[in-house]
Amino acid sequence: LQRDAKGQYLFDLLCHHLNLLEKDYFGIRFVDPDKQRHWLEFTKSVVKQMRAQPPFTMCFRVKFYPTDPAALKEEITRYLVFLQIKRDLYHGRLLCKTSDAALLAAYILQAEIGDYDPGKHPEGYSSKFQFFPKHSEKLERKIAEIHKSELSGQTPATSELNFLRKAQTLETYGVDPHPCKDVSGNAAFLAFTPFGFVVLQGNKRVHFIKWNEVTKMKFEGKTFYLYVSQKEEKKIVLTYFAPTPEACKHLWKCGIENQAFYKLEKSSQVRTVSSSNLFFKGSRFRYSGRVAKEVMESSAKIKREPPEIHRAGLVPSRSCPSITHGPRLSSVPRTRRRAVHISIMEGLESLRDSAHSTPVRSSSHGDAFAGPARGGRSDSSERVAVIADESYSPADSVLPTPVAEHSLELLLLSRQANGAPCSIEEEKESEAGTPAEPEPGELRALCPGTAGLGPPPAQQVNKFVLSVLRLLLVTVGLLFVLLLLLIVLTESDLDTAFFRDIRQTPEFEQFHYQYFCPLRRWFACKLRAVVSLLIDT
Q1: Check: CATH 1.10.10.10 for 7-169?
Q2: Mean model confidence pLDDT for the chain
Q3: Which of 172, 176, 164 is nearest to 68 (CA)?
Q4: Each residue of 1-33: b (16+ CB within 10 Å) or e?
Q5: CB-based contacts of 222: which residues, under 8 Å, 6+ apart?
Q6: How far does Cα 528 stand from its chain's mean position?
Q7: Residue from 287, 248, 259, 253 nearest 194 by CA
Q8: How high is the pLDDT of residue 230?
Q9: How would you classify residue 401: left for phi > 0, otherwise alpha for psi between -120 and 50, otherwise beta?
Q10: Predicted confidence band at 316 (pLDDT cuts at 50, 70, 90)?
Q11: Mean pLDDT comparison of 163-172, 202-211, 343-352, highest-scoring range
């Protein structure tokens, strides 16, 4: 990767590698050394956006969830969205009732291993899959029952499509949570979905605001403001506090991008947005992609043979570990397949050992979500069959795509053990000899050619100097404008009502006679002295 390569170049290279045309729903995410998530900006240099030293770790993710994922044109796009939502389910982002959780897990099971086979799938086989952070035996039996009796004969593509249709009906579909606190100090998660702005507290969705009701978003430091205009000209301002200013800025930028993508009719309507009302203060940001309506129109024009999809088989997914024994029943031919383990170190080992939760409910149908099961695998009653703690606690909100410092070495060792090349360029070279099958859900982009190209200290000093110079320039400009206004007030003969009211104030008269007139006489005297000195010389 060249030093001046834009984010768009890397993203296009990745989409070409995955044979993906409906690429506007996806993005590349990375984490800085302070564990703050960022979306790679396609209009800026990749190297300049990184604060860490190369090689860089990046994650291929769904950035804008489709409003109707079942309506996507190509199966490869649906499969990638399926992988993302399966990951959301595992990390506790997707809330659902126990019955819905069992159905979603059964769809995953059918897509992973195909039809139930008593010879290959012994009693308790569903427990070898990790669909959620916590499982109960009752839930596992329910998953296996649905898989055996209701899904027989479904191909992986059909199961994934049914999975998407069911997930799209859930309230937290498309939620990418940002941990915050409200004005009372209570913990909350803010998120932007295809349908609007969402606030989650505990197991409940306390706010849902449609995109056409959001009039403005801004931030100041750690404080995030959302301006809402509802019916009958009712205006509301929601205020939340992010953990850090960087997290608040990331939240604001995500909101600006999501509102532009889902709300606008054309990308030509996108405007540059400022986080402050003052022209010289705050951040400015502009969404640079296409909007949802344009993406749908472009997808409808796609006319090509459906690309071959190499679904993950024996290689377990980092986000949702699969059964690692026995062949996976799939409609995809396996003659040209080679297991290439392209993954990222998501810190999953620590997540498995901790008590992260995927809250679900099994109570009344009117409730959004249900209470917890603290006993882990207890199935003593109908209401205990849940896989959650009480609070909404998605793992990726607390540890946003964590990447340990030592994970780079571990990943390189694991990739070499699997016979996988260590970079995109090396993988291209190896494709000529042995065709490789990527795992589309997760990808690690390594940039070995940029060693030592991280931001040097001199560059940081230059940025500081530029910011100071910019501040001085703005200050001098304001002083110059004030001086012009003062001269107009004191020396001009303009007799407008505005100037007349100012001149008649006691404060202005005192300033004029006690300060301005002596200063003018002193300045005139000095000017005459300088002129006479120049004449004499």
Answers
A1: no
A2: 75
A3: 164
A4: beeebbbbebbebbbebbbbbbbbbbbbbbbee
A5: 241, 242, 243, 244, 245, 247, 248
A6: 65
A7: 259
A8: 80
A9: left
A10: very low
A11: 163-172
pLDDT in tens, 62-80: 999 999 998 899 999 999 9
Which tokens is 6 given?
């834009």
Arch. (CATH architecture) of 181-301:
Roll (2.30)
Query: What is the rounded radius of gyration, in angstroms, for the C-alpha atoms of the chain?
Result: 30
Kindly list the domain boundaries of the chain, sorted by start residue: 7-169, 181-301, 476-536
What 8-state DSSP symbol labels residue 284? E
Residues 60, 63, 69, 71, CA torsion sign = negative
Contact between 313 and 339 under an 8 Å Cβ cutoff? The reply is: yes
pLDDT tens profile 220-256: 989 999 999 987 778 899 999 999 999 999 999 999 9
Please count the residues of the chain: 537
Q: What is the Cα–Cα distance from 315 to 309, expressed in whole angstroms?
A: 15
Four-CA torsion 380, 381, 383, 384, nearest 10 degrees:
0
Where does residue 112 rank: exposed (0-12), middle (13-18), buried (19+ CB within 10 A)? buried
What is the pLDDT at residue 443?
35
Which residue from 151, 115, 144, 149 is spatially nearest to 129, judged by alpha carbons?
A: 144
Q: Which of 84-93, 276-285, 418-427, 497-506 holds the top average pLDDT?
A: 84-93
